Amino acid sequence: MKRILPSLLLAAAVSLHAAPPSQPSVEKLATLAKVEKIHDAMLVQLQLSMDSYVKQALRGGTLTPADQAVLDAFHPQMISMVDEQLSGPKIKAMFEEVYAELFTQEEVDGLIAFYGTPVGQVFADKQPLISGKVGALIGQRAGQMGMRLQMAMYSAAQKIAKAHAPPPPVTKPAVTVPAKPMAPAVTQPTPVTPQKTN
Fold first, then answer.
1. Residue of 120, 122, 149, 182 with fewest CB within 10 Å of its CB?
2. First CA to last CA distance, the chain
3. Ramachandran class of 59: left when φ > 0, alpha when ψ lies in -120 to 50, beta otherwise
4. Is the dihedral of CA 37, 43, 49, 51 positive or negative?
5. Distance between CA atoms of residues 94 and 100, nearest Å
6. Total H helices, total E strands in the chain
7. ∠ CA 182-188-193 to the nearest 5 degrees?
8. Number of Cβ atoms within 10 Å of the Cβ of 2
9. Residues 27 and 96 sit within 8 Å (Cβ to Cβ)
10. Which of 40, 190, 23, 185 is closest to 108 using CA atoms?
11. 31-61 pLDDT, tens per residue?
């Protein structure tokens, strides 16, 4: 009995540490981590992309009042399209679901303690900016290697396809029938007409 009791206590402690986090705790973590700021950062990135498209469309020209009216009408449309699927509350709910899936209660408690500090709040404030800058750097590198990587992938796929290609069908050689020799042409003798004598 003395040996069993410590084992049960250890198992209970391990089970407690590995317990899934409670819903209130993941909600608190998502709030402290300020995950809803991702929504605002996303809108900024989309606006930058739109500015780039407009610059290309202008081809060195300048915006006219009519052009500005088009952009003014598009901006609320862009926000509406983003909010339809990725509003701040919807993003927060996604993070809460992922937190509950990946973290234990102990880990969530530790993260809450970190984000509750001044340094943790600075990190939360700058996290969208960090993600945006890292994403831009990754995009630049990806653009540089994109063509090379695509060619390498195509080459590897072609090697695999060639190894698995069915063998070509065996075709019988064509039988050549020798041509019959042509019979010599028979020429008829030309009849000789006797000439009359005077």
1. 182
2. 163
3. left
4. negative
5. 10
6. 7, 0
7. 165
8. 5
9. yes
10. 23
11. 999 999 999 888 888 888 888 888 888 888 8
Task: Return the closest-CA partner of residue 111 out of 194, 10, 31, 12.
Answer: 31
DSSP string, 78-116: HHHHHHHHH-HHHHHHHHHHHHHHH--HHHHHHHHHHHT
The whole-angstrom separation of Cα 98 and Cα 23 is: 12
Model confidence, pTM: 0.62
Per domain, the residue ranges of the chain are 19-126
Residue type, 90: K
Give per-residue pLDDT as tens, 115-173.
999 999 999 999 988 988 888 888 888 877 888 888 888 888 888 888 888 888 877 76
Rounded CA separation 97/103 (Å): 10
Residue type, 183: A
Q: Determine phi and psi for 35, rounding to 5 degrees.
A: -65, -20
Rounded Cα distance between 184 and 138, Å, is 86
Residue reference for tokens 């410590």:
6
